[in-house]
Each structure stands twice: as structure tokens, then as C-alpha cells.
Write a structure and sequence with these properties.
The chain is an alpha+beta fold and 74 residues long. The protein is 45% helix and 16% strand. β2 and β3 form a beta hairpin. α2 packs across α3. It starts with a helix and ends in a 15-residue tail after the last helix. The model has no long low-confidence stretch (mean pLDDT 85).
Length: 74
């Protein structure tokens, strides 16, 4: 039988700090903060701390650098 505290733990189990996300991705905390600022990763704020979704971090695929190439009309 589950208790209310177990339900709360499950609710927050997917959320990690930006520093932990950086360790998982092998990058810097600043790089994660930039992704957060651009809105590329789901976040949740708790007590003034911005947490990121562990699932979103593990599934994140970087986009190619630079502008997208467009087809020239002829």
C-alpha cells in the first residue's frame, strides 16, 4: 500500500538539478542553463531552484549549429 509521501517522491523523481544534468550530459552547468533559457528543456521551479527533467535531458538531441539551409527558388 502506498502512502502520500511515496506519491510525492514519485512525483519529483524525474526532476534533477542543472548541475546533475550537466554531469549526465558531460557538459557544463552553464550549457544546461542556456538550454533552459532558450526553452529547449522542461523545467520546474521549487523554492527558487530551477530543476530540469531527467527524461528531457537524456532524450535531448542537439540541433546543428548555424542557420538552417533553405532551398533557393529558380
Amino acid at each position: 500500500m502506498s502512502t502520500d509521501s511515496e506519491k510525492k517522491d514519485d512525483q519529483f523523481s524525474d526532476w534533477i538539478s542543472q548541475a546533475e544534468a550537466a554531469r549526465l550530459r558531460g557538459t557544463t552547468r552553464q550549457a544546461i542553463a542556456k538550454l533552459v533559457k532558450k526553452g529547449r528543456i522542461r523545467t520546474m521551479t521549487v523554492g527558487g531552484y530551477v530543476l530540469v527533467s531527467r527524461t528531457a535531458i537524456s532524450e535531448y538531441k542537439p540541433q546543428p549549429a548555424g542557420r538552417r539551409k533553405t532551398k533557393k527558388s529558380q
